[in-house]
């Protein structure tokens, strides 16, 4: 069978990981990358050993060798790039958030379904073997009725006011910073693992660093680099937030997000408490799953393919004791994406753990409900009733 051709638009931090994941599949040709100008795209193409560079995403999408477009641009470009790819009936793998607002996300989801192609959002934590294990255990009823879901996604890379990223600019990142960038992962994980839906939210948001100083260039996440020239910028989007949650089965929940909390790197944690047992998964200890019980000892399930449930086992590639990490989970998501693409994006062929534009649209609706709740002084907001998710179909 002929290899699929992949093109990538937006050669920033995450782009290298998309290329790495695709290379590890072994049956995909990396055709080209496109950047904001030819010189920068050529520079990245040389660095990453990609054969061709384009100055514009439209040229890349027009290339007949490109079957799949990876959209790793900053958030404000997500819509235009994904839309152009869908119009050309190319499969799309997009970073989250799907777009900078729910309306654009809805339009993209509809366009993807109409185009009849595969449409993937890289909610990459779904690719962790123990995340899938937690999902399988909950699906099999091992926790009993779910009552409480809680956790956080805390970071510190924006602690210094001299770090200014496009994520803090509403024109480029969207109205939300922390909720959209990392809260979106937490909510996706909570819903994916539990099978529940968040039905209402109450958010309390804060901007801890209301003034930042930019060097002109956007800081890359975690780069810690601070340029010379300083321009003062007033920041309105949240860098800290707490949200109370109500789930559709009556369960309660809460989670916090932060980008300015010293010491927290990618501190993503989800705990689910049922009537019979509890589970806790921490991204920074991703080879362990804590299992809590009332009248029996608690235990720690160490990632071991031999001990994982059927659906989770295929996400683990190394024997027990060999750690699998972020890049391995990312590769699992990309492998699922290409398995779907190999079937032309036929809805019934979508791997069940793979997040689609339906999930991206739902995520945008959740974020907007949280922003509405906060702007109304912390009132309960219902999540749009038509904010769907993809439970196996597209
Ligand atoms: C920066 O906050 C970032 O790279 C996010 O954009 C990713 O989605 C998250 O997984 C890690 O942190």
Query: Which assembly state applies to the chains in this document?
Result: single chain
Q: Catalogue the ligands.
A: alpha-L-sorbopyranose
How many individual helices? 11
Spatial order of strands in the largest sheet: 16-15-14-13-7-12-11-8-17
Radius of gyration: 20 Å
Q: Please state the structural category.
A: alpha/beta
Which shape, going by the Cα principal axes? globular
Low-confidence stretches: none
Order of helices and strands: EHEHEHEHEHEHEHHEEEEEEEEEHHHE
Main beta sheet: strand number and arrangement? 9 strands, mixed
- Classified in CATH, the superfamily of the largest domain is Dihydrodipicolinate Reductase, domain 2
- The proportion of strand residues reads 15-25%
- CATH-defined architecture of the largest domain: 2-Layer Sandwich
Total number of strands: 17
The CATH topology name of the largest domain reads Dihydrodipicolinate Reductase, domain 2
Output mean pLDDT: 95
For the record, the count of structural domains works out to 2
Helix content: 25-40%
Task: Kindly describe this structure.
The protein has 394 residues and is α/β, with parallel strands linked by helices. It has two domains: 4-124, Rossmann fold (3-Layer(aba) Sandwich); 128-321 and 357-390, Dihydrodipicolinate Reductase, domain 2 (2-Layer Sandwich). Helix content is 32%, strand content 24%. The chain is built from eleven helices and 17 strands. The protein has helices at residues 15-25, 38-48, 57-62, 75-87, 102-115, 129-139, 170-173, 178-194, 310-313, 326-342, 357-375, and strands spanning 4-9, 28-34, 52-54, 68-71, 91-94, 119-121, 146-154, 198-206, 211-214, 231-234, 240-247, 252-258, 267-274, 277-282, 288-293, 299-302, 381-382. A nine-stranded mixed β-sheet has the order 16-15-14-13-7-12-11-8-17. Helix 5 (102-115) runs antiparallel to helix 11. The longest helix has 19 residues, at 357-375. The chain is globular and about 65 Å long. The two termini are 25 Å apart. The model has no long low-confidence stretch (mean pLDDT 95). The structure holds alpha-L-sorbopyranose.
